[in-house]
Write a structure and sequence with these properties.
With 45 residues, the protein is an all-alpha fold. The protein has one domain. 44% of the residues lie in helices and 0% in strands.
């Protein structure tokens, strides 16, 4: 993930599916630092 801004409409298109997957994986890793035991994150894009 690049630390640059991206427009929401661009982030939600089909071409950025891998970035959305990476985002959810990083979010899961971040949350599990706090011992919340997140197994899966489901986001309604």
């Amino acid at each position: 993930m690049q630390p640059q801004y991206i427009q929401a409409s661009a982030f939600l298109d089909h071409e950025h599916q891998q970035q959305r997957k990476t985002f959810t994986q990083l979010l899961k890793l971040y949350l599990n630092q706090f011992n919340v035991n997140v197994a899966e994150i489901e986001i309604d894009w």
